[in-house]
Amino acid sequence: MLSLNKLASAAMLAGGLVAQSGAAHADNVVARWIELGPGSSASALANGLYGDQPTSLTPTILARAVISGGACPALTVDGSLPITMKQRFVASQLTSTPGSSGAPNGPNGSNSNNTANYPQYFVSASATSPANFPDGTAKATTSWAECEAVVPAGHATATIGGVALRLPIANPQRILVIGDIGCRMQNASQQNCHYAGPPPGFPLPALAAYEAQFKPDLIVEVGDWFYRDTSCVVPGTGEFTPGCNDTSNAAYQTWGDTFDSWNADVFYPANPLLAAAPWVMARGNHESCGRGARGWFALLDPHPFNINQVTCAYNAGKATVTNAAVYTGDFTPTYVVPGGSINFLVHDSSFANDSTVDVNMAKNYDYDLTSLLSALPSNDYYFYVTHKPSYGLVSGAPTNGGDFTEQYTFSGNATANSAFTGGVPYKIALFLSGHIHQFEYVNFSDYSHYAPQLIVGTGGDNLDPTANPDGHTLTYAYQNQAFTVHNNSTTSTTTTTNALAAYSQAEFGFAVLDATATGYIANVYNIYSTKAGRCVIKLNPRDLTCWD
Known about the structure:
15% of the residues lie in helices and 26% in strands. By secondary structure, the protein is an alpha+beta fold. The strands form 6 sheets. It has an 8-stranded mixed sheet. A 7-stranded mixed sheet has the order 13-10-9-24-25-26-27, with no helix packed on it. A 4-stranded antiparallel sheet has the order 1-2-6-5.
């Protein structure tokens, strides 16, 4: 068993090995990965596009690389088939990209840190190469770019700049689930982003190195990648960590929805994991318009680059919905990714407020999902992957901490002819989410109307207080408790159902889902390399049982 210090050392070593390997093959590659997105029509591919078939069970396989300048790296499939990578964007396009404001930071929060100075660029036009931060991390310049290519199906490996990446397999047996991975820089809840440890540190570098050792076939990140949307200055107090706001100090922590912040939150600390397996990437509320949308749409969104989405303004999700889904910068189409025994429904829940019902967005969700589900095979099983959990626990009691808009959607009352009139369709076997920074599960006794909920929001950002009324620090389990869900457009009208079992655990970590004949065994691991919990996921009848 590795100690935390050894894990941190492993993380730094792995990061160094990746950097050295990259330097030996392609000096300009900062990060590289394989990402699975919505399917593509032949006509889209012929025109250099992709991702226009969200109901397709054949995903688009995207090879992507962030480069520090120069030409796109060489991409070779199965050691012999060369594929040309093209620039998705170059940073010089994004030196003035209005949209991220720093305040009010999307519909779920406010930002009181340096809002007047929030960077209105993705990469500073004044940055010149060579340039590094005082701690040695590379600083993005206008020569930085992202390259991408669509990889044909039916191959085993891809090599970008001489570094091998695994391509998707037909029946993945091991699925790694992580979420909420960035480093928080907001007021008193800040972390020291240079320390790879538990609070007040940032555990992702250690976790990523450890997670890669499990050799997953597929990695699912359930949203919230970017947390550096404030500076490290606490109003009225000053710097959270001495020197963290001084660009000449090794303790400086980059902030704002910029290339440097995304590199610090994702690419640099997660480098050992990025190359380990293909990724399914969900969008979180921290990537909503006016918050982290620039980085999301430029770097990770599984659709072609669209400058109008990159620059989407706060509240772009506000739309009047009548008889069909309205897609905006804050709501993009749900799509399917095959995952072996199940298929993933990857849903964008980045916009709607947790604690009120957004009727228009509920209609959007309903029209989008009803159309999608009607086009999918009815005898397949699906995991609904979205950032915000439909059902969850909050600190202090078995109180509903899920997203009220999603709950209203799944009541079947949001639109006529809803797919959810009779409850959550049985082919949705599990809700898989983050957002609440704990490991949690909620399993309903009425499994015909409700799908069980699994939450893995423990990948890097500060943990939430445990949903535990007795003060126990780590875990709490509930049995046969009333659970109130919002089945009406107003929060005052609710329905109480019975949660057969629910469980909450506040430790940094991740889940590893191993396929079985009837579903999955999900083992939960913490930052100390300890197995912290175990779940049995059954597809038919749908059921979820966990324990520590």
